[in-house]
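Pipeline run #58 for the internal structure catalog. This entry was flagged by the ingest filter as a single-chain record with no existing model, so it goes straight to prediction. Upstream metadata was stripped on purpose; only the residue string is passed forward. Reviewer on rotation: M.T. Logging verbosity set to normal.
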Amino acid sequence: MAHGTANSPQVLRRMNSGAVVRFALRVAEFTAAEVMAETSLTRATVLGVCDDLVEAGWLVELEDSRAAGLTSKGRPARRYRLRDEAGVVAGIDAGEHRFTAIVADLRGKVLGEVGADAPAVDRRPGSAAERSRAEAADERRALAVRLLDEALAAAGARRDDLLVGVPAPVDADGRSPAGDRDYWKTMNPGFADALPGPSVVVENDANLAAVAEQSHDGQAHTANVATLLSGERLGAGVIVDGRLLRGARGGAGEMRFLDIVEGAGSPDGVGALARMWAQDALAHGERSALAELPVDEITARDVFRAAADGDALAAGILDRLGDRIARVALVLASLLDIERVVIAGAIAEAVEPVLARARTVLAEEFYPPVPELVASTLGRDIVVRGAVESARVRIREEPLAFEPRR
């Protein structure tokens, strides 16, 4: 071990300090007695560790319980809290079309948030498109650095722990493999090396969405769930037996296999398909209130709105989407024995009619068990919220690997 044997005073002190910091990260204020009850450490050990952590910049000592008017008899209890200035975490959702950066304190309170449209990415084959993707990669790196600095400035903070979410597989070193016509490498153009800061972690966006769902207060938890980002493309963050699946190259949850699944046909997302199917139907002369809009400007939101207003074409598109989601969910459940599929991202707020259709399809066309289908309540910021939560998890797991700010 780096600090000597497991029984050495230095190692024991470090272990005890880590336990106290983890406790401090969970509660607003605490007494030495509360730490003793949580950790089974002696009073003398707790007070000594807390003194060390105050000196190091992790904790602030508050008025004792008598001075604060909390007790009037007996020995006053010494009270502490996590020092607000000890550090911040930052998360970036580096999506295909939009970047969002959030800086939060160590409890997850958002201190600064900024966003900007991402550079367009040409996904067609050919040398001209390759040059375009190379330019987009440079622009994505520069945009991530700029938004990080702007979010930190808004928070009045400096660079500390940073976690970036990208729509691509990510290996243990934060890099994405070649594949998908270099789309993955364009989405993740070396963020691990390009972004400044003492700790930069790059992760798949759907995995971060799964982390956000798992940690969300009030969300019904399960040890076996797939969180499905379903805007332009489908991607799943999969938790099985309580553990996030990654794979050798970070590709667990990639949905390219849908190209060969009957009734699914592609990894295109709900948002993309709603738009494309509407545009194709109108191009073939089908009647719809959507025809009042410029065809090339129709969005998924327009389709969902028209369906809610009783438009037959739009309602039919939502039924087709429900048929498809039912089959995607059943494939995931059959392969991984998951109990729930959560539809997440910006589309989640409008997706309930699609899920209602998908539930009917699952009940009428397939044998049980079939997965539960629910819409996420975390909105379009689910990935960046997952990034912030993942950064906080890293700190809770080994807080003393990070230096508190002074």
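catalog note: The mean pLDDT is 88.
catalog note: The chain is about 40% helix and 15% strand.
status: ready for reviewer M.T.
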